[in-house]
Specification:
The structure is a single chain. This protein has 436 residues and is an alpha/beta fold. It has 15 helices and 13 strands. An 8-stranded mixed sheet has the order 3-2-1-4-5-6-7-8, sandwiched between helices.
Length: 436
């Protein structure tokens, strides 16, 4: 028996962040959508047509018919409830399931008989059925597969990417029964132009999501370890990559800081589950250790260059350009730039951060740091660390401007993590230049 959405049926998206809001806007093109978030400030901003993540334009928001609300009772109006809350890790690198458990409690309290609850949050294989379903049953008093159903469709949103938008990325769907899988394939397929992949079960769909990012994490970890080795050997890593890339089957990954809400977190969900079933994952955790070390490695090399330039380390001033976890977005979640900041502070260095995309109030709340609005305000600096490849840094800053920010133009230090600038030109300009 096939399940169909009636014209009057509603879809409620729970969590209106980088994943939930674009999904709600997309679904709104075909369906009646309720957008729920526990943050009343976020709801008010969206109603005014402002998206602080900059993923959705004011025009798109104002043209949508989404019922934005922070009232959980509105969930009871929905036939389909899609959960897109974050799934972070705690300070011990253990999955922090509080957001998804809390969302499940709220959904369970308000969902009606006949509801279909779909999870898009990144989880370890088995979590939807083992953790979320019991909460839904307890809070609702309903019976799974009799009174309600669940599904899983992992998010594949790439924040800041205006080319690979949500509708242009193939969607994986899985339900707790073949009928629910077919229903989700039709539902998402009506708005996703890239196509649908039907996974055989929910656990398979959950596993597919975590290995997508685990694979990328390991590839970057290899590049980072090579960078550490080549630095010790006095070899330029990027020159090696340029040479190796001339082979047709060489996979070109770049060394760098691995943060954010996916690549730097998802492998820990998989390793947590692996350890829970008695397997100690070695390769995955080794990759994580390398990537988690890179902020410290950058800070250590910044200090080495300060010493090389004859500058006093303690009391020196360093400017870090960029704090977000990737370029041209406002997302500061799990950014590894903070590791550089903390490590430099340990050396007694005065550290300042400027980021044209990050929201100052969020940075203050999350990290207790006051962002520098104007980079000239605390100049001169003893070194500048370019940590994020933001467009303004490429378009508005050059070697002469960097020199003017430095305390000693004869020995300016430029730490270029992402390799934005030409190494040979930097050295000809007299910079002590270092990059991963």
């Amino acid at each position: 028996m096939s399940i169909k959405l009636k014209k009057e049926d509603k879809i409620c998206v729970i969590g209106l962040g980088y994943v939930g809001l674009p999904l709600a806007v997309l679904l709104d093109k075909k369906f009646n959508v309720i957008g729920f978030d526990i943050n009343p400030k976020r709801i008010e901003e969206l109603k005014q047509g402002y998206d602080r993540t900059k993923e959705i334009s004011t025009e798109e928001l104002r043209n949508s018919n989404i019922d934005f609300t922070d009232n959980p009772a509105k969930i009871s109006e929905a036939k389909v409830i899609i959960v897109t809350v974050p799934t972070p890790i705690d300070k011990h690198n253990t999955p922090d399931l509080r957001p998804i458990r809390s969302a499940s409690k709220t959904v369970g309290k308000y969902m009606q008989k006949g509801s279909i609850v779909v999870y898009e949050s990144t989880v370890y294989p088995g979590l939807t059925e083992e953790e979320c379903v019991p909460i839904l049953e307890k809070e609702s008093g309903l019976k799974w597969k009799k009174d309600f159903n669940v599904g899983y469709s992992p998010e594949r949103v790439n924040p800041g990417d205006k080319e690979h938008t949500i509708d242009k990325i193939k969607k994986i769907v899985a339900g707790d029964s073949p009928e629910i899988t077919e229903f989700l394939a039709e539902l998402y397929g009506s708005v996703i132009t890239a196509g649908i992949h039907k996974a055989p079960d929910i656990k398979t769909a959950e596993a597919a999501k975590v290995i997508e990012n685990t694979q990328r994490d390991l590839n970057i970890a290899l590049m980072n370890e090579l960078s550490v080795i080549f630095n010790k050997m006095g070899i330029d890593t990027r020159a090696v990559l340029e040479a190796a890339s001339t082979k047709w089957n060489f996979l070109r990954f770049e060394p760098g800081l691995v943060g954010g809400h996916c690549i730097g977190i998802d492998p820990y969900y998989l390793t947590f589950k692996a350890q829970a079933i008695g397997h100690h994952p070695e390769v995955i955790l080794a990759g994580r250790r390398i990537n988690d070390y890179m902020g410290k490695f950058v800070a250590e090399n910044t200090v080495k260059n300060l010493i090389k330039a004859g500058k006093s380390v303690k009391g020196s001033k360093v400017l870090i350009l960029g704090l977000t976890f990737k370029e041209n977005i406002a997302d500061i979640r799990n950014t590894k730039v903070i590791d550089i900041y903390k490590e430099l502070k340990e050396y007694g260095i005065e550290v300042f951060i400027h980021d044209p995309f990050a929201h100052p109030e969020e940075v203050k709340e999350e990290y207790g740091i006051d962002l520098l609005y104007n980079i000239k305000n605390e100049a001169p600096y003893d070194a500048v660390v370019v940590a994020v490849k933001h467009k303004p840094f490429i378009e508005e800053l050059d070697f002469q401007k960097y020199k003017k920010l430095m305390s000693d133009n004869s020995k300016p230090i430029l730490i270029d993590i992402k390799g934005l600038y030409d190494k040979n030109k930097a050295q000809k300009e007299g910079f002590l230049y270092w990059r991963l």
